[in-house]
């Protein structure tokens, strides 16, 4: 089997069969990662550029580790330490890199649609979107889905709650696309000022502004970070007030008296959107998400490379 697309630009472009294939391939790579020797020669002759125009820790390290585990040759590019700071355009940068015969580009950019722009100009190179503006973050949604299925067995029929800054979250949009494609029910909760009204009708999700009611409904709560760096106006009174209204606390969860799987894409603002005792609790799979991210990204890179056999 192979993917229906040459690039991973967003979950919106994937078929349910593509998602299933990525998740099942990730399961095979997760088994590889449990071995004493965690490296396979699957992408030994493939060169990948990590093109990061935005700061990143988890995603960048996760992709780098996935590439090394697959034996790929990697080039790491940071915009702040490159000719971009001297005024070089995105297309000039990429054309210069591709003249060095690169097979794949993993790209994070603050502009929504930047990976799509690349894919139109570089048709022979596989492009992986590692987060573009407030549009999508497809590999995060895939690793979230992998983590849910690992914990609950399936996505179909499960009730998934996304809490927080929905308006500025590319993680939220990718999760909504994926979860609804795979038969899960999705609810959003957060301040009205951070909740795009169109999502309910356009994307087939529920909206519940009362966090306690939303938590009582769900099987999984995916807690999103408040993205102050993307907000150009004041959208709530203070972080303290946000925590009181929409912070996931052990006190609130004890009032519901129900086991809920707790997730967070990171980085965590402890004491704001989630309290430390919840983030570190037995119901939290936050560290599992980080672990699963390597296996999922290995699966994405391997499948986009067009290789026919998974090297053992």
Word description of this protein:
The structure is a single chain. The protein is an alpha/beta fold. The protein has two domains: 11-136 and 290-305, 3-Layer(aba) Sandwich (Rossmann fold), CATH 3.40.50; 138-288, Rossmann fold (3-Layer(aba) Sandwich), CATH 3.40.50. The chain is 40% helix and 14% strand. It contains twelve helices and nine strands. The protein has helices at residues 16-33, 58-69, 90-98, 114-121, 138-152, 170-181, 198-203, 211-217, 239-246, 250-256, 276-279, 286-305; strands at residues 47-52, 73-78, 104-109, 126-132, 159-163, 185-189, 206-207, 220-223, 261-263. A five-stranded parallel beta sheet has the order 7-6-5-8-9, sandwiched between helices. Strands 2-1-3-4 form a four-stranded parallel beta sheet, with helices on both faces. Helix 6 links the parallel strand 5 (159-163) and strand 6 (185-189). Helix 1 (16-33) crosses helix 5 and helix 5 (138-152) packs across helix 6 (170-181). The longest helix is centred in the C-terminal third of the chain and has 20 residues, at 286-305. The model is unreliable at 229-234 (pLDDT under 50).
């Amino acid at each position: 089997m192979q993917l229906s697309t040459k690039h991973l630009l967003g979950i919106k472009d994937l078929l349910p069969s593509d998602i299933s294939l990525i998740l099942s391939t990730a399961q095979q790579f997760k088994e590889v990662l449990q071995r004493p020797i965690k490296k396979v020669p699957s992408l030994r002759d493939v060169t990948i550029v990590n093109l990061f125009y935005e700061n990143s820790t988890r995603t960048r390290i996760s992709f780098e580790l996935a590439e090394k585990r697959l034996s790929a040759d990697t080039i790491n590019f940071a915009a702040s330490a490159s000719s971009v700071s001297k005024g070089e355009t995105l297309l000039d940068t990429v054309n210069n890199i591709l003249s060095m015969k690169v097979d794949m580009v993993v790209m994070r950019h603050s502009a929504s649609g930047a990976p799509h722009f690349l894919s139109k100009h570089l048709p022979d190179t596989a492009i992986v979107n590692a987060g573009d503006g407030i549009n999508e973050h497809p590999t995060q949604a895939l690793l979230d889905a992998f983590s849910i299925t690992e914990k609950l067995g399936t996505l179909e029929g499960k009730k998934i709650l996304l809490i927080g800054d929905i308006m500025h979250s590319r993680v939220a949009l990718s999760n909504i696309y994926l979860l609804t494609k795979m038969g899960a029910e999705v609810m959003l909760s957060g301040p009205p000022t951070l909740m795009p009204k169109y999502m309910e009708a356009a994307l087939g999700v529920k909206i519940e502004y009362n966090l306690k009611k939303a938590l009582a409904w769900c099987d999984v709560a995916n807690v999103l970070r408040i993205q102050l760096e993307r907000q150009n106006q004041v959208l709530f009174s203070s972080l303290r007030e946000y925590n009181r209204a929409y912070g996931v606390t052990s006190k609130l969860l004890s009032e519901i008296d129900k086991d809920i799987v707790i997730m967070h894409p990171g980085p965590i603002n402890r004491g704001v959107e989630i309290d430390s005792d919840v983030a570190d609790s037995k119901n939290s799979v936050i560290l599992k998400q980080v672990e699963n991210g390597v296996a999922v990204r290995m699966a994405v890179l391997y499948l986009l490379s067009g290789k026919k056999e998974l090297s053992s």
